[in-house]
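Everyone, describe these C-alpha cells:
***
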Amino acid sequence: MKNTSLAVFKKNIKKVKVQGASSVALTTLQQVVLLMKNSRRHSSPRDLTKLCRQGETLAKLRPAEPLARNLIRWLVNSLQLQVNHKRWQADIRRQERMIKSKLDLIDKLISKSGSTLIKSGSNIFTHCHSSQVEKILQQAKKVGKKFIVWHTETRPLFQGRITEKHLKQAGIKSVLVVDSAAAWLVSNHSGDRIKINLVLLGADSIERDGSVINKIGSFGIALAAYESRIPVYIVASLLKLDWDKQSKVELRSEQELWPQAPKATRILNYAFDKVPAKFITGIVTEAGIIKPVQVKTTALKFYPWLKKYRKTD
C-alpha cells in the first residue's frame, strides 16, 4: 500500500475505493502510523494520547468497520505499555510489524479451521467479497477438495466480480448469481438441481450478542438458509467485535444506485444489513469455530485490552 496524503486517504475510504474490511483496516493502520511517525510532538504520554484520538477519528470514517478501530487500539495499547519516547520511531515500526505479523497468523488459523467445513462434491454459497472466505476456499482446494462456489454479483459496486476473478485465478469452479436470486437459490424451494450445502459469509462487524453486520443481502441469504436448515458460518476475526457498540448500518449515496435519477426520486441505499445470531451456525475465528454466544468471552481471552472500551448495555 502506498503512502497517501490525509485528504486522499479520507476520500478513498469514504468513496469505497478501498474495498473490504481488512483492506480498510490495514490502510487506516498505515495512515495512523504515518501520522505518528511524522509528528514532532511525541515526547510524553499526553502527546501519544492526542495522536491516539486522531487515529480513532480516522478509524470511524466507515461506521461498520470495527476492525479498523480495534487495530488502532491494539497499536495504541502496545505503545502505551512499551514505548520509549526516546526511541519513538523504532517502537512504532516494531509494533506495526508485530500487528501485521499476527494478522497473517490469524488468516492462517481461520483458513485452516474453515477449510474443515468444506466437503468434496459440495455447493458453497457466499456473498460480496471476503478475503478470509476466499482463503478458506483456497485452502480447501489446496488439500484436494472439489466443490463449486456460487456467489452474488453484489450491486451496486459489484464486489462479486472481485470474488469471481480471484476464484478463477485459484482454479476454483464458480458461478456468478444475480443478487435478487440469491435467497431463492440458497433455499430448498429452488429445487434439487442446485442444492446448496453450506453458506459462508464474511462480516464487517460482529455484535456482542453474536449477530453480525455484513453486506446488504446477507440477511435474506441467511434467513433462506436457516429456514431450509442449511448451515451458515460467518468467517471473521474476533478483532471485528464491536465491543463499544459504535457500528451502524451505513446508508450510502443515492448516486451509487442512479447517478442521473429524475428529480425528487427518493432512493434508499443500504450498504449493510444485520444477520441475527439465531441464523448463524458458527463463527470461524482465530480461536477456532465458535458459537455466536461465545463471542464476547472468547474475544476477551485473546484481546483483554478490549475491556477498556466497553460501554454499558
Observations:
- The radius of gyration is 20 Å.
